[in-house]
Structure formats: C-alpha cells, structure tokens
Write a structure and sequence with these properties.
The complex is a heterodimer.
Chain A: H1 2-8, H2 11-21, H3 25-38, E1 45-47, H4 48-52, H5 55-58, H6 63-70, E2 77-79, H7 80-88, H8 104-112, E3 119-120, H9 122-132, H10 139-153, E4 161-162, H11 163-169, H12 175-178
Antiparallel strand pairs in A: 1-2, 3-4
Chain B: H1 2-25, H2 39-51, H3 64-88, H4 91-96, H5 99-118, H6 127-144, H7 148-153, H8 155-183, H9 193-204, H10 208-215, H11 222-252, H12 259-292, H13 301-318, H14 323-341, H15 344-373, H16 383-409, H17 418-426, H18 432-440, H19 449-477, H20 490-509, H21 515-534, H22 537-541, H23 545-568, H24 577-594, H25 598-612, H26 617-625, H27 629-645, H28 668-690, H29 706-711, H30 714-732, H31 735-742, H32 744-751, H33 763-768, H34 779-786, H35 795-800, H36 805-808, H37 819-825, H38 830-839, H39 851-855
Classes of the chains: A mainly alpha, B mainly alpha.
C-alpha cells in the first residue's frame, strides 16, 4: 500500500501539502495510503459513502457531522488536498506556527452550523444535542438544555450563538489541546 | 494571640490527660495492637472476680484497664482532631506552612510531653496500625474521588514514573550509598550492598498521604497533579515488590542469589502489581453489583462500599499482592456505578464519610509521625549516612524525572513543560509509608535498623516540612500553571463531549489507533456491557452526561435562588419578570420531570411520609440537610423560612375565635408589620379594583403558614392550597403539574365570606373578592402583589401542609394562575380569619396534626 501511495503522489504535491498543512513527509504518505484505501471508487476523491463505510463512524453519534466537515460547501467529493486540509485542523500546533488558520474552533463551530449562516440557532444546537444524548431525555428537557446553553453563550441577545460568542465561551477550554491528535509519523 | 491561647490550653489539657494515662499504663502502646495485652490488664479482672472477696456491693468502681485500649484509641482520635482544629483556626499560618507540617510539629510537642512524663516513648506509629487501620481509608478516598478520565489519559506517563522512576530511585540510591560507604564517607557501618538496596527501595517511593496533604493546598494544574498523585499511588506496587524481594535477598544472603531468584523477583513484580489491580477491580465490580440490589434497604449502601473496599485491601494483603493498588482500583472502578446506583443521600454519605475518615487518619498519621521522633532509643546519628541519603533522594529524583519526562515528551501530545518538571521532581515527598516499612525491618538481619529508621524520619521530615513549606512559594515563583477554577457551564461540557466524539472520528478516518480510538472502543464496551450489568436500569436512564450537568446547574441555581430568597426573607425575587422567565426556563423542565402530572404529585404527597418511615431518625436529619436536589433544598428552605419568619405566638390561641384576641400577640413589631402589610395590600387591591381589574381575590385570612395545619379548619387548607398553586405557576409554569393544585380556586367561594361588619375590611376589598375569575389578574399585578414581600413558603411545604383527603374533592382541573399567590400577601389579618371561622360552623375534618412535623 505504501509503495503504491508514493507512486501516485508526486513529490512536488507532497511538498505543497507539506507547506500548506504542516504535516511531515512521512505523515503525508501514510495518510495518502489511508486515503486511497478509503477510496473505493479509485477516482482520487472520496465521497460521503466512502466515509460512511468506515464502521466506527457508524456508531459515532456525530459521525455524519464530522464527515460533513470534510466537504466544502456544495460539493460531495473531496480530493486528497481537501482531505489533508481538514485533518490539519487536528494537528497539534507547534509553538513556532501559531497561525489561527487551522484552529479547531471553526471546525467545531461548523459542526453545529448546518445552514452556514455563522450562527448556531436553537434548532441547530438541539439537533446536535439530540445526537449526543440518549433517548431517555425528553424533547422538553433537551429543549431547556439547549435554551440554557444558548443563554450561557449568547451575549447580544439574539438567541443564537455567533462564532465570536462561541470562541468566547470556549476560551477556558483549551481547544487547541483538546482538538489535537497525535498523527503517526 | 487567640491561637496561642488555644495551644496553651490544649497543651495543658493534654498534659493532664496524658499524665494519668501514661502513669497507669506503663509501657502499653496505645496504638500498638500487635502487642499482647500487658499482664496487668488480664490479671485485673481476675482479681475482682476471684481473687478479691467482695465484702460489699461497690457503688462505683474505677476500671481503667477494662476500657483502656479503646479509650486510648478514642482519646488519640480526639487529640488529633483537636490538633487539627487548632491548626486550622488560623489561616494565616496554614497559608504559609502546610497543615501536614504543623501536625508533625504538634506531634513533636506531644511526644516531648509524653517523653517527659514517661521517660520512654509509649506511643509510636506501628506498622500494623498504620497499614491496617490508618492507610486504607486514605487510599480508598483517593481512588473513589479519582478523576478517572484524567487519570487514564495520563496513565502512560504515570506508569513510567511509578515503575521506572521508582526502580531508578531505589537502585541508584542504594548503589550510591554503598559506593560512598566503600569510599569511607560514613565511617564504620555494618551495611552491605543488599541492605543498602533494601533501604533504597523503602525510601524510594513517593508517599500518597504526604502528596495529597501538600498538593491539595497548592492547586497546581490538573495534569501535573495527576502525575504526582497517580505516581504516588501506583508506585506502591513497585515498592512492595522491591522491598519484599530485597528483604528476601538479605535473608538469603549474597551468595545464594542467582539469576533464577532475580527472575522470580521480576515475575513477582508483575504478579503483585497486576494481581493487586485486578483484585481491586473485581471488588469494585462487586460493590457495584451490590449497590444495584439495595433497592429496599438503602441505608446499608454506604456500608458496603467501606467494608468491601477494606476487604479488597485485606485480601490483597493476604495474598501478598499490592494492597494499595487493590484498594485504589476498587475505588476507581466502582465510583461511576455506585454513584449512579445509590440514592443521592447515600452518595453524599459515602463522599462525606470517606472524607471524614481519610482526613482523620491523615491527621493521626502526621501527628504520630511527629510523636515517633521523640524517642532517644531510636536515634542513631551518622552524619554521612543521613546527609548523603537526603542529597541522593533529592538529586536522583530530579534526574529521574527529567530523564523520564524527556522520553515521555517524545510521545506525548502535550509535552510536560520544564517548570512542571521542576515541580514534579520537587513534589517527590516521602512519608509514612516509608517510615512504616523501615520500622518493619528485621533487626536481626539488619544491624543498623535504627539508623535506617531515623534516616527515614529525617527524610520524611525534610520532604514534608521543608519541601512542603517551600512548595507554594516555588509554585508561585515559577508561575506554574494553576488549576483553573472551572465553572461548570453547559456549553463547555457539551463542547468537550463534541471534541471527544470528533477526535475519535478523526482517528477513525485517518486510520490510526490512538488514545481516542481506544477510548472510543472502551466507552462502547462499557456502555454495552458493564453499565448494563452493573447499573440499575433506572439509574442507567438518568445518567446522560449532558443531562447530568444540566441537572447540577439547575440544582445550583435552585440553591442560590433559595439562598437569595432567604437572605431577602422572601421568594419574591423569583417573580420579578426576568427572573421568572429564567426560572421557568431553568426549572420548568426539571420540575416537570419531578412531577409530570398531578397524579404523580398526589402520589408523592401521599407516599412521602411512608417512604421515609423505614429510615431511622438519624438519617432523617441527614436527609434534610442534604440540600441535594430540588426537594431537599426546598424542604430546608421551608423549614428555615417557617422557623424564621413565621409570626409566632398565635397558634396557642387558635381556640379563640373572637377578634378581641388580636392583641394576644405580644410582639409589637410583628403586629405592626402584619397590620401594615395588610393595609398595603388592601390599598393595592383597592387601586386595582378601581382600575377595573379583579385584584387578588384571595384574601387569605390566615396570617401564618403554620396555621393551616394547626387550625383544623377547612379554609386554611384551601388557602394554602391556593397559595401553593400560585407558587407553582410562577416558578415552574408547567401547566400540567400545576393544574392539580389550582383546584383550590373552586373552593374559594366558600370561604369568601366576610362581613362588612368585621371592621377592618374596607368595602372595596369586598368587591375584589371574586374567586371565580382568577385569570383576569394580569401577571404584572399579581407580581406587584407578590412584591409586598411576604414570606413565601416553598412549594413543598405548601403542598404538604394542607393535604387531607377532604381536599381531594376540591381538586378540579380548573387552572387558576395567579390569584392564589395573593392570598399570601394578605395573610395575617387575624380578625378576618376569625370572621371566617364564625361563618363556617362546620369545618371540614382537620388535617392530620402536624403532618409536616412527621418528616421533619
């Protein structure tokens, strides 16, 4: 697999991805082999179905939302570049490159913000909550949880959470740290 | 100043206590249970029974020996407790010097006094007492309150420190001391290499008790804390093995040690450590299972946890596995399930009692560490040995930590910073475990036992006192990241969960098996199997994480609302506009769950007394104080309010129905207050009548909330019912649940019977009394009424008081929202009540007397 991956991935492509995402050479080739193994259609792009075929994602309550995060708006295919760009959000940030471009906040925010209006409305929040809690919680209960959550974050009183408000509440949570994964070399 | 006086008093007291005690007992060790009883003890009762001919019936006999042992134990617990109290009396001191250090110093003083009286050290910390009676609860508490997620996500690092670090400390210390010995730094000592290694192994381990005591006052960031703390707990396995192995080697003697023995030693490490952990795990599951089945006898739940925890410790000890690991894992693995399975009161009991025990033994341990030092026979001084040990302990700890961290950081997502490493090395406190092990050394095999014991003590004192005192300034000076005071917010919790799911998903997508992948797998497994088996079905339902946080937040809010209300003397704050909405949002839900409909409520009302019956009165007290949960809080609140704010003095006059007894109330202020309030309300209602709005129709004639129960009068019941419904409306506005209470509205007409002649009423008021259309009152008006600052009893209290079967017929689906609240505002005008009573000659059957009191 690895050898095939490196044959398909040109050296200059790797360099570009490296520059763009900060992954190391070996990480890129490794992830490329993963990419190709997911790519059942063998057309160089991943579709939603390709992602959904991962068995663990099926039991992840937020699986579909996370899959969504890989797809740019309006598209249903993602190439390796895009794949890596999304994964880069989860790369631990080293001290020397504190560019906020790859901060995890945005991905996390997009997870809620389905209609991409840069606001998390009560309904959107409710949907995510519903995914995460068991069936034992009634809709009313969940509704008041959502209300309260919004209340906590909402500073301008529009009954929804904007991106800025979102970042603000999560200030204390070390997002960079909590959203980081150690990618194997 | 005050403190000094305390101390003086205390010293005086303890001298008085100690003197006769020590005088009588001679050399008996208080805590020395392993000692056989001194002959005196046994012969004494014999004498009284057989030897001495009883010539007369003794009225009083002084039988000190009869109670000696338990008495001394109890006294020591008392002494330690008092010591702690005195020490904690002044926070300026404890801010600078950690409590553990002060306790040791207190032990010095006490030990000095005993020494002065006896000329021998009567009391010492013996290994038996320490390991069997003092240590387990401290460790159980540590395991039970362990932040599991944090612990397991740092488990790799902790294990590296605990295993490799401890071995390194032991080995390097032993070898270096031996090297120095060979080099002639210590003069003439009869210690061989193996004995040095044995000494190294006993002093290598970081002590959990000392670490907890010092670090819990410093509040370093949680990763750092869990590193030190986890290491201190887990390295016990290593210590026990090293100690036993080297002890065996020393007994075997150098020549007999071969590769086989060494391999056996290594194997025994795995057996001891993993066997201990596994045993603890099994016991943890057992506790969980047991608490699953205690539905009918909740009172023994806490007992199971303590007993089984202790048994896991003893069993491990019996099988010569690591007892500390066993009890730690028992605590760690049962915490989730027992907290879900047990009644909330039991959970609190366990938590609190665990803390009491742990804190108590911690105190005793430190005091006795101090006392043990004052013993001339113990001290053997060898400057080279002592100082070199101290030096090596510190130096090798630093080297070990820095080296291991360097390796760890290659694998850690979030590296441990340099400053954290400094604290990590500096936090290598030694404590009572090391001392206990040192005392256990066999004097026949190790000639210099006393030197080792005294060196151990020096190291313990140095680390606990010196490093303990300097820890805080160091942490401040190095600007170590402190633990953030995490305020519980729902969004953060939700977001943390989201992050967890995301990370798992990303690892799945990128096809690696990492931390999160493992955690995901474990969670699924846990969810699927363990929870199903170990948790009550009902507990499983309510255990959703997000919901729990929400629930906690609600409770917190409820309590602060209540506290605020008590401060102001009323619950009016709940009813101002904004708070009302807030409150509704926050509580509507919770409450609807508690009382989804009226039937539920009725059941609750009816059964609540009987539910409590099986609980002995002691726990009733606790039940009330639990303040846990809406109901608890409310109950307290109502008690408090009732006690504090009820107008007193009239209940004894309930038989008098004539107005003339108004002045029975001696309290001028109260009378004044009541009068003013009534007048104000009338004015209010007058105004509203003018505006054409039906004002508060409920003119409640009964001032006091307690009257309803005392008065044996149908009206009073009605009134409080109605009041209660209003309350419910305002606070919880859950239509369904409220409707039941509102029934009172229908009963209103009966009671609105006053006579104009009654004197104080003004005519406008009469018009207001239109019970039949409550809905007309605009909320703002109702609120205004409420603002008049009456004491609002909590809902629970209201619900309970008036409940009688006779009320049932009044329950009607009619939903009246606001009016009832007003009833309260008008309360307290006695004449009205009396009129009422006259009007209604046949009062409904009296409510069971003091129903409320039954449960309070």
């Amino acid at each position: 697999m690895g050898s095939r991956a490196s044959t398909l991935l040109r050296e200059e492509e790797i360099e570009e991805i490296k520059k763009e995402t900060g992954f190391s050479h070996s990480q890129i080739t490794r992830l490329y082999s993963r990419f190709t193994s997911l790519d059942k259609g063998e057309n160089g792009t991943l579709s939603r179905e390709d992602f959904q075929r991962i068995p663990e994602l099926a039991i992840n309550p937020l699986g579909d939302r996370i899959i969504n995060a890989f797809f740019p708006e309006g598209e249903d295919q993602v190439n390796f570049r895009g794949f890596m760009r999304t994964l880069a959000h989860f790369r631990p940030i080293e001290d020397n490159e504190k560019n906020k471009n790859y901060s995890g906040d945005f991905i996390a925010f997009r997870l809620y913000d389905l209609d991409r209006d840069d606001k998390i409305s009560r309904d959107e929040l409710l949907q995510v909550l519903r995914m995460m809690v068991g069936v034992n919680i009634s809709d009313e209960q969940l509704g008041s949880i959502a209300d309260r959550t919004i209340q906590e974050a909402d500073t301008n009183g529009d009954n929804s959470i904007s991106f800025n408000e979102f970042i603000k509440v999560l200030e204390k949570v070390d997002v960079e740290q909590k959203m980081s994964i150690r990618f194997l070399h | 100043m005050r403190r000094r006086r305390f101390v003086l008093l205390w010293i005086l007291g303890s001298v008085l206590l100690m003197w006769p005690v020590t005088g009588v007992t001679g050399v008996t060790g208080v805590k020395d249970k392993s000692h056989p009883k001194p002959p005196g003890c046994e012969s004494n009762p014999n004498q009284t029974e057989h030897g001495v001919v009883i010539t007369e019936v003794p009225i009083v006999t002084f039988k000190w020996h009869h109670v000696e042992d338990p008495y001394l134990v109890a006294l020591w617990v008392l002494v330690a407790g008092l010591a702690k109290m005195v020490i904690e009396a002044n926070h300026h001191v404890t801010n600078v010097i950690p409590e553990s250090a002060l306790l040791i110093c207190f032990g010095f003083i006490l030990g000095g006094m005993i020494w002065g009286a006896d000329k021998v050290q009567t009391f010492k910390l013996t290994p038996t007492v320490f390991f069997f009676y003092l240590l387990p609860q401290v460790i159980l508490d540590a395991g039970y309150s362990m932040p599991n997620k944090l612990f397991f996500s740092n488990l790799g690092g902790i294990l590296v420190y605990a295993i490799i670090g401890t071995c390194w400390n032991a080995g390097s210390l032993g070898l270096s001391l031996w090297g120095c010995h060979m080099g002639g730094a210590m003069g003439d000592l009869d210690i061989g290499l193996l004995q040095y290694l044995l000494f190294g192994s006993l002093i290598a381990a970081v002590d959990p008790v000392a670490v907890i005591a010092v670090f819990e006052q410093v509040h370093v960031n949680e990763v750092l804390f869990i590193m030190v703390f986890g290491e201190s707990l887990l390295n016990d396995g290593v210590t026990v093995v090293l100690f036993n192995v080297f002890d065996a080697f020393v007994s075997l003697g150098g020549p007999k040690i071969n590769a086989v023995e060494i391999i056996k030693g290594i194997i025994s490490f795995f057996v001891v450590a993993f066997g201990g952990s596994l045993l603890g795990f099994v016991f943890g599951l057992l506790v969980s299972l047991l608490t699953r089945c205690t539905k009918n006898i909740k009172i023994i739940e806490p007992g199971f946890i303590f007993v089984l925890g202790y048994l896991s410790y003893l069993t491990a000890e019996m099988l010569s596995l690591s007892a500390i690991l066993s009890i730690v894992f028992c605590g760690i693995c049962c915490q989730k399930y027992i907290n879900a399975n047990m009644d909330e009161n039991s959970v609190n009991t366990v938590r609190y009692f665990m803390k009491v025990l742990a804190n108590g033994s911690e105190t005793i341990i430190f005091v006795f560490l101090g006392i043990s030092a004052v013993d001339k026979t113990l001290w053997v001084w060898n400057t080279g040995f002592v100082l070199l040990t101290l030096l090596f302990v510190i130096v090798y700890r630093c080297i070990g930590v820095f080296f291991l961290t360097w390796i760890l950081n290659k694998f850690r997502l979030v590296p441990i910073g340099f400053i954290d490493q400094v604290i990590l090395s500096y936090g290598g406190l030694r404590g009572a475990v090391a001392y206990g092990l040192a005392v256990m050394l066999d004097e026949n095999k190790i000639k210099e036992k006393n030197l080792m014991v005294s060196t151990t003590l020096i190291v313990v004192y140095f680390t606990v006192i010196f490093q303990g005192i300097t820890m805080k300034p160091l942490v401040t000076w190095l600007k170590v990241k402190r633990a953030a005071i995490t305020e519980l917010t729902l969004i953060e919790k939700v977001q943390n969960k989201v992050f967890d799911h995301m990370l798992v998903a990303i690892e799945d997508i990128s096809g690696q098996i990492g931390h999160n992948y493992m955690r995901g797998k474990w969670n699924n497994f846990e969810e699927k199997w363990m929870s199903t088996v170990l948790m009550k079905p009902s507990a499983r339902k309510n255990r959703d994480y997000v919901y729990k946080v929400f629930h906690q937040l609600n409770l917190k809010d409820a309590m602060s609302y209540v506290a605020e209300g008590e401060r102001r003397g009323s619950l009016e704050f709940v009813r101002n506009d904004k708070a009302f909405i807030d409150f509704k949002k926050k509580f509507g839900d919770d409450f609807s769950e508690a009382m989804p409909d009226i039937m539920e409520t009725l059941k609750y009302l009816i059964y609540s007394p009987s539910i409590r019956d099986p609980v002995p009165s002691v726990s009733l007290e606790m039940h009330e104080q639990a303040m846990n949960g809406m109901r608890g809080a409310e109950e307290i609140n109502s008690h408090h309010l009732l006690q504090q704010h009820l107008y007193k003095g009239r209940k004894q006059h309930r038989h008098r129905y004539s107005r003339s007894h108004f002045d029975v109330n001696k309290d001028e202020n109260e009378v004044q207050e009541i009068f003013q309030r009534t007048m104000r309300n009338r004015l209010e209602s007058f105004k509203s009548a003018k505006m054409g709005v039906a004002p508060p129709k409920t003119i409640s004639k009964h001032t006091k909330k307690d009257q309803p129960q005392k008065m044996a009068n149908g009206k009073s019941q009605d009134k409080s019912r109605s009041y209660q419904s209003g309350d419910e409306d305002f606070e919880f506005s859950e239509g369904d649940s409220a409707s039941g209470y509102n029934a009172s509205g229908s009963s209103f007409p009966m009671r609105v019977t006053y006579r104009a002649g009654a004197g104080i009423e003004n005519p406008a008021f009469m018009a207001d009394v239109d019970p039949m259309d409550p809905m007309q009152i605009p909320p703002w008006l109702a609120e205004a009424e409420l603002d008049s600052g009456m004491v609002a009893p909590s809902q629970r209290a209201q619900v309970r008081l008036p409940w009688t079967p006779s009320n049932l017929r009044r329950l009607a689906p009619l939903r009246i929202s606001t009016h009832s609240t007003d009833s309260f505002t008008l309360v307290g005008y006695p004449p009205m009540r009396q009129t009422d009573d006259e009007d209604l000659p046949p009062p409904p059957p009296p409510p069971p007397p003091n129903r409320e009191d039954d449960h309070m």
